[in-house]
Write a structure and sequence with these properties.
Shape: globular
Radius of gyration: 21 Å
Oligomer: single chain
Strand content: 15-25%
Structural class: alpha/beta
Number of helices: 11
Order of helices and strands: HHEEEHEEEEHHHHHHHH
Number of strands: 7
Helix content: 40-55%
Distance between the termini: 24 Å
Strand order of the largest sheet: 1-2-3-4-7
């Protein structure tokens, strides 16, 4: 059985020049190579680093961080990974955060990290691209094939005609055909799932093996478990310290689901807190996208 290669690195590699020119809004930039995002202490699966160059700036790195749903910890992470990339490759870094799904509640998505501790200030700017704010016609540019699977999620894209149009392009190119199931998967979030299954060739066995699908399932598992804990903890124990919320957000989906069982068994908040794994055990290995 074929295995779908539909991770973020694969999508960007379809046309790296078109991608980096889009995220930087600089038509003079040329992509040289996609390089490793693994650092000495951690391996990152959620970002793609592209080494680029332009006549004006010379060589630099475009760090692409793709997230299914915005995470409030992203400013700190953008600062950390931009610094790690700059240190490892000794090149300037242009960080970009691409958010795929619109938040369910209104939230201000910052485009910088800022801190002031004991009179010492730190700041990291980065560009934010929210796909739901991107006009769907952008996905049909010849150089932005990476956006075709996301087209139903773009502004004006929640239409059956958009899905059909995207399918026609994907089916006309053998290298893109594997992306059809991914397109259908995202389309089911905004259109009738039954109708989408009628017009899109779904091969769930292949789709379930794709890195993007697997990571999305993991993220949704975490989101659901975290939401249940956030609701049930105050109901059972009353006011819950903010430090507990912070600790829970640092865990993965499996750990949160284990804590759901703990919540049923324990009779005090202290007992629940003692069962929370240490945050440092989770951050290095966490894969977002």
């Amino acid at each position: 059985m074929a295995k779908a290669d539909t991770g973020s690195k694969r999508l960007i590699s379809l046309d790296p020049n078109g991608w980096v020119q889009w995220v930087t809004q600089r038509p003079d930039i040329e992509a040289d190579e996609i390089i490793s995002s693994e650092f000495q202490w951690i391996g990152r699966e959620s970002d793609v680093i592209v080494k680029v160059s332009s006549p004006e700036t010379g060589e630099f790195l475009v760090l692409n961080e793709l997230q299914f749903r915005y995470d409030t910890r992203m400013p700190k992470r953008m600062r950390a990974y931009a610094a790690l990339a700059e240190e490892k490759y000794n090149l300037p870094v242009y960080p970009v955060l691409i958010n795929i799904f619109q938040p369910e509640t209104a939230v201000q998505i910052p485009n910088r990290y800022e801190s002031n501790f004991l009179g010492l200030q730190a700041r990291q700017d980065y560009r934010v691209i929210n796909l739901w704010e991107v006009d769907v016609e952008v996905a049909f540019q010849p150089t932005l094939k990476a956006l075709l699977p996301f087209s139903p999620l773009l502004r004006g894209g929640a239409q059956e005609s958009v899905v059909v149009r995207a399918i026609q392009i994907l089916r006309s190119d053998q290298q893109l055909s594997e992306l059809e199931s991914l397109l259908g998967f995202f389309a089911t979030y905004v259109l009738n799932p039954v109708r989408i299954q009628q017009i899109v060739r779904f091969d769930m066995a292949i789709l379930e093996q794709s890195p993007m699908y697997q990571q999305m399932v993991q993220k949704e598992q975490k989101r659901l478990a975290l939401r249940i804990l956030q609701r049930q903890l105050p109901r059972k124990f009353g006011e819950v310290p903010a430090t507990v919320q912070t600790a829970l957000e640092a865990l993965n989906g499996d750990q949160l689901e284990e804590l759901l069982e703990v919540l049923i068994e324990v009779n005090s908040l202290d007992a629940f807190i003692s069962a929370i794994p240490a945050a440092e055990e989770n951050e290095p290995g966490e894969a977002l996208f």
